């Protein structure tokens, strides 16, 4: 059984982060951490971007890890996402 190349799997991770209802955030990106790290190497996947709620942020690592494991990769997932807060309306702004 061959393992899917990690670059291909990272595309699926990004897709899952956008479509899985536990996260459902567009604009997140998954990539490998420093590939020049000295041995022993552990595959480390970093997820970056903005998430809108603490609940979604809490599920980033779970969703990414599930996709990686399904593809045969056992990797450490680092969540470097940022929690963004909604921008309050400006006084006098028009409601649409």
Quaternary? single chain
The rough form would be described as: elongated
Q: Major sheet: order of its strands?
A: 1-2-3
The CATH class assignment is Alpha Beta
Uncertain stretches: none
What is the C-alpha radius of gyration, as a whole number of Å?
16 Å
Chain-averaged pLDDT: 89
Give the termini separation. Answer: 55 Å
CATH topology, which one?
A: Alpha-Beta Plaits
Please summarize the sheet with the most strands. Answer: 3 strands, mixed
Helix content: 25-40%
Outline:
The chain is 32% helix and 21% strand.
Describe the 3D structure:
The chain is of the alpha+beta class and 96 residues long. α1 runs antiparallel to α2 (54-70). The chain has a single domain, classed as 2-Layer Sandwich (Alpha-Beta Plaits), CATH 3.30.70. The relative contact order is 0.22. It has a three-stranded mixed β-sheet with strand order 1-2-3. β2, α2 (54-70) and β3 (76-83) form a beta-alpha-beta unit. 32% of the residues lie in helices and 21% in strands.
Features:
single chain, 96 residues, alpha+beta, Alpha-Beta Plaits, three-stranded mixed sheet, 2 helices, elongated
Give the SSE map.
Blueprint: H1 6-19, E1 29-32, E2 44-51, H2 54-70, E3 76-83
Parallel strand pairs: 2-3
Antiparallel strand pairs: 1-2
